[in-house]
Write a sequence for this structure.
């Protein structure tokens, strides 16, 4: 069995699965139950001067019957007195010495930072996470993402913290920014050894069309909140990937956050360079119990890949995140539909017709019918393969991919409801050797015919 | 839809709905299972060609009124069809989920959700009739075919008068549907909605015939068009000794009384026999079982694998206790004191015919005969130029529904020999298109 334990800035954690600073880490009782369930660490709900909250606080977005594709909240930092939180942190750490307990902090002045850092360390915090990411409420008061948005301010506060802190410091970044490298570099300059990202994305969850008020609704109004959950995972992977491949920032320890719900999501973040991962929405949806499968699944995955530890997985995919200009233009794939598992829904057909390159054909049509349907090229022969089905089922035929016209876009495979029915097959490319756009630019062969006269005229002669 | 005006205490009211109206949450969940197939096979499998994936998608987006409109545009009796269609062998039977070995979409229940919700909340807003044309059309028979034709013709601005022999409208939709699928009240409510669509008058108790209250000659001369939605006639008789008398019913007559007659009682009926192997036989047997008759058996002259009734209906009836006695043909009704029904004598059947000397007596308190219904072609023949085929079915041009008389169209059971409500609606739709063209001149 693979070793799931990690070393995050010198802190040993039994596994890379941490709870993010959020409602699931609001109290000692919660965090202790989470540790009992198997979570390797937890980042305590952000401490600061207590605030007041509104009702309601959360908004969800579903896709069909799949609930909580995304979640947003307009809840602020902890609303409980500081001494109550500190006492529970102390008790929790004492009871669970081997688990990682990070305390998230958000205050304003240098003196406040000094006091809260001392109190948190006295309570037993293994590390401190600076909440420079919260994009709602607190940012209006000059904290949270207001700091994350201003690299200079971020750097300065990080310096204050580094001056006082004895335990490792993690700077939590907001995604609500043009270039994620700027705050990350500022944190590095400020002396922080670690980053976590992403915090939530600024969002309005919808509009109540009967009351004409955005969601989540607080009486007759709403406000922008922080968006999280499975829908933000691709955004988080991108922003984190930007940093893990960064020559300097990439050397910092990074805790990946954003839509992680399963061991597979976690493995993807780790493969892109995360040392630990943090989870919130999936726990708010399904409870702490999901960590059992996360541990079991990641362990089985590592075993199946012959990796002995999480560390062996870390960063495996980082190098393959490249610029567009570095991609091989000669790489070619074609869609292949498995006739045995096709159910005849023809969703691949309509997606290709209207959303792609009109290269999937319905068998049994005449040339005229195919042209009338919108095909511009009709292959000579289309095999009449019947959909495998019980007796009595009407005749349906397996759609046919015209390989000559297929540009390998993946869309048909993405819309097919039957997992594995449509696959993308690698075929030899037209050049027979790899060539990138950057190669073409370097060779001066990057002018694609059919463009503007002015563009062609402006090019230096070869 | 409004409250029913039918009398209380009817036996059918004791039978519970086997597929109750979906809640909004249930409909949403089921609608979201639909894959929204392209050129979906369910559409081809629907005789009226309802755009099923579209109406289901509209449920999933919360556009229930639009969903109902998508259904009703293709099938104006989309509500009752949702309740009574054998979806297992039509739309749902063609669902691509079968190819995946997963349960098909519950299309009937979704269709009921849309239409029932819309008829409750938006009944008046679904359609707006066109200005009156001054044209008048007579529909003969008030069953599904005529009601569908009347609804669509009324929306065109035509005046429609429906003449019905019986005392109620709706034909088998009111008097023949298994109560666990739909009660008579729901048919009556749907008819009220159809009537609300325009100038539709329903004349019940009308005797059509050369000597009746309404003569074919008068209809043809007074109306711009005539639509024959005659349905089928009375239950076929067995023609055996003792058939006439208490305890022996024609199956459709019995079902009509279960649905509409509060005076019918099954008290004391412990053993019932239903003769036949079609869907009416299954329905009658199933209803008797559901109404508490302890022993219900169908007596069929062949083996159950060749029964004309739907296999899924037979399985369902069996689950409620209905048994089948195969390869037997009734030869004699045994009566005791005062003509009281005692037993049915039945012979072994070879190729559907009785073998002499093989009779046994099957004790019973009730017999329902479900071996077919007579054809109503006789009335049709009163219209000059209208022909019926060797099976008594009215002959029409399939593309137009027009008979040999240029002003007379026909559709429904009297043309197809006895099919589903949905077939009657489609035939009415075809006839309405042709009538519309003809009246435009």
């Amino acid at each position: 069995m693979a070793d799931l334990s990690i070393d995050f800035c010198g802190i040993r954690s039994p596994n890379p699965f941490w709870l993010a600073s959020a409602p699931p880490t609001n109290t000692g009782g919660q965090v202790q139950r989470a540790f009992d369930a198997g979570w390797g660490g937890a980042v305590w709900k952000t401490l600061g001067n207590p605030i007041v909250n509104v009702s309601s606080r959360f908004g969800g977005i579903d896709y069909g019957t799949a609930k909580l594709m995304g979640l947003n909240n307009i809840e602020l930092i902890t609303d409980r007195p500081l001494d109550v939180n500190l006492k529970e942190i102390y008790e929790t750490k004492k009871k669970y010495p081997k688990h990682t307990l990070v305390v998230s902090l958000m205050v304003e002045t240098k003196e406040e930072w000094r006091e809260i850092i001392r109190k948190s360390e006295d309570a037993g915090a293994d590390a401190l996470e600076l909440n420079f990411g919260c994009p709602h409420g607190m940012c209006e008061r000059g904290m949270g993402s207001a700091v994350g948005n201003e690299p200079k301010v971020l750097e300065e506060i990080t310096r204050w913290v580094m001056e006082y802190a004895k335990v490792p410091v993690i700077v939590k970044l907001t995604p609500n920014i043009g270039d994620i490298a700027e705050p990350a570099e500022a944190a590095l300059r400020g002396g922080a050894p670690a980053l976590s990202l992403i915090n939530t994305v600024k969002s309005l969850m919808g509009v109540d069309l009967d009351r004409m008020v955005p969601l989540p609704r607080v009486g007759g109004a709403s406000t922008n909140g922080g968006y999280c959950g499975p829908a933000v995972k691709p955004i988080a992977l991108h922003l984190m990937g930007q940093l893990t491949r960064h020559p300097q920032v990439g050397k910092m320890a990074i805790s990946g956050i954003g839509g992680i719900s399963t061991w597979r999501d976690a493995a993807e973040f780790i493969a892109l360079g995360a040392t630990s991962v943090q989870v919130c929405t999936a726990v708010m949806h399904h409870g702490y119990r999901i960590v059992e499968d996360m541990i079991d699944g990641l362990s089985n995955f590592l075993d199946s890949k012959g990796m002995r530890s999480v560390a062996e997985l870390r960063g495996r995919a980082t190098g393959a995140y490249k610029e567009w200009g570095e991609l091989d233009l000669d790489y070619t794939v074609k869609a292949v539909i498995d006739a045995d598992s096709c159910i005849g829904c023809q969703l691949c057909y309509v997606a290709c017709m209207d959303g792609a390159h009109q290269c999937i054909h319905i068998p049994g049509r005449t040339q005229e019918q195919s042209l009338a349907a919108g095909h511009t090229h009709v292959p000579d022969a289309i095999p009449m393969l019947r959909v495998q089905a019980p007796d009595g089922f009407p005749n349906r035929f397996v759609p046919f991919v015209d390989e000559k016209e297929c540009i390998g876009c993946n869309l048909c495979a993405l819309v097919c409801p039957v997992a594995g029915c449509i696959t993308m097959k690698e075929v030899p490319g037209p050049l027979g050797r790899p060539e990138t756009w950057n190669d073409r630019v370097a060779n001066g062969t990057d002018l694609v015919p059919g463009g503007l006269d002015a563009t062609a005229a402006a090019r230096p002669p070869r | 839809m409004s409250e029913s005006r039918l009398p209380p205490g009817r036996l059918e009211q004791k039978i519970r709905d086997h597929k109750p109206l979906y809640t909004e949450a249930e409909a949403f969940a089921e609608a979201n299972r639909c894959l929204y197939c392209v050129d979906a096979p369910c559409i081809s499998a629907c005789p009226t060609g309802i755009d099923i994936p579209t109406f289901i998608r509209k449920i999933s987006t919360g556009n229930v009124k639009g969903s109902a409109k998508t259904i009703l545009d293709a099938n104006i009796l989309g509500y009752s069809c949702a309740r009574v269609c054998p979806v297992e062998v039509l739309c749902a039977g063609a669902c691509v989920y079968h190819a995946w070995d997963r349960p098909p979409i519950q299309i009937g229940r979704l269709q009921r959700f849309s239409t029932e919700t819309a008829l409750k909340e938006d009944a008046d807003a679904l359609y707006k009739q066109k200005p009156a044309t001054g044209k008048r059309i007579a529909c003969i028979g008030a069953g599904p075919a005529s009601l569908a034709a009347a609804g669509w013709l009324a929306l065109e601005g035509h005046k429609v008068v429906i003449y019905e022999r019986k005392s109620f409208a709706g034909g088998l939709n009111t008097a023949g549907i298994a109560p666990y699928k739909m009660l008579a009240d729901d048919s009556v409510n749907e008819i009220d909605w159809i009537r609300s669509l325009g100038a539709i008058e329903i004349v019940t108790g009308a005797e059509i015939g050369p000597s009746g209250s309404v003569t074919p000659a008068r209809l043809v001369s007074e109306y711009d068009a005539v639509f024959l939605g005659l349905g089928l006639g009375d239950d076929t008789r067995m023609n055996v000794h003792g058939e006439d008398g208490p305890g022996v019913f024609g199956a459709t007559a019995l079902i009509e009384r279960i649905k509409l007659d509060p005076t019918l009682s099954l008290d004391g009926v412990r053993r019932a026999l239903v003769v036949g192997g079609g869907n009416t036989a299954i329905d009658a047997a199933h209803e008797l079982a559901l109404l508490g008759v302890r022993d219900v058996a169908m007596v069929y002259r062949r083996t159950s694998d060749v029964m004309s009734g739907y296999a899924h209906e037979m399985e369902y009836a069996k689950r409620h206790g209905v048994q089948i006695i195969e390869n037997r043909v009734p030869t004699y009704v045994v009566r005791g004191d005062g003509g009281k029904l005692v037993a049915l004598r039945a012979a072994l059947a070879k190729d559907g015919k009785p073998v002499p000397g093989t009779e046994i007596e099957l004790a019973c308190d009730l017999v329902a005969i479900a071996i077919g219904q007579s054809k109503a072609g006789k009335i049709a023949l009163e219209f000059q130029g209208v022909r019926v085929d060797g099976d008594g079915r009215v002959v029409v041009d399939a593309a137009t529904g027009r008979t040999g008389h240029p002003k007379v169209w026909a559709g429904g059971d009297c043309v197809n020999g006895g099919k589903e409500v949905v077939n009657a609606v489609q035939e009415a739709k075809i006839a309405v298109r042709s009538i519309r063209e003809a009246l435009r001149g």
About this structure: The first helix of chain B runs from residue 24 to 31. The interface with chain A takes residues 28-29, 32-33, 35-39, 41, 44-45, 60, 93-94, 96-100 of chain B (CB under 8 Å).
